[in-house]
Specification:
Layout: H1 2-18, H2 24-61, H3 64-99, H4 115-120
Helix pairs in contact: 2-3
The chain binds zinc ion.
């Protein structure tokens, strides 16, 4: 009956989000989108991780020009990984805000984040008027 309980909890959280300005359909749609983006990000992070490892192996084996090339690729991959790590935590936080029943509310002022904004950026933590 674990599954039954899980769904029950999710529904309670979804209904609580509805008490704000979002409809249950909107919250379900945004949660689906967040989970979809999370899966895609995790896939892309595995590719980045592989690229970083490959470059590390290359460094001993290749000539000077290729080594410069490798280092450039490595710094690109590192920058990419940093952005991915930030986005991963934004997505996870947004999903946990659904569970904590505060999804759709600005983390700075507590005001409502317009649905139009969430539609474009479902993980948005701020209302758009608060400085990031
Ligand atoms: Zn705000």
């Amino acid at each position: 009956m674990k599954n039954g309980k899980l769904y029950e909890h999710c529904d309670v959280a979804l209904v609580a989000c509805m008490k704000h300005h979002l409809t249950i359909d909107q919250v379900i749609e945004l949660r689906t989108e967040l989970q979809r983006q999370l899966i895609r990000l995790e896939q892309s992070m595995r590719v980045t991780e592989k690229a970083l490892q490959t470059v590390e192996l290359d460094q001993t084996a290749v000539g000077r020009l290729s080594r410069i090339d490798s280092l450039q690729n490595q710094s690109l991959s590192k920058g990419l990984r940093e952005r991915e790590v930030v986005r991963l935590s934004q997505l996870r936080e947004a999903i946990s805000r659904i569970e904590k029943e505060t999804f759709g509310l600005c983390i700075a002022c507590g005001g409502e984040i317009p649905y139009e904004r969430l539609f474009v950026v479902p993980e948005a933590p701020l209302c758009g008027e608060c400085p990031s």
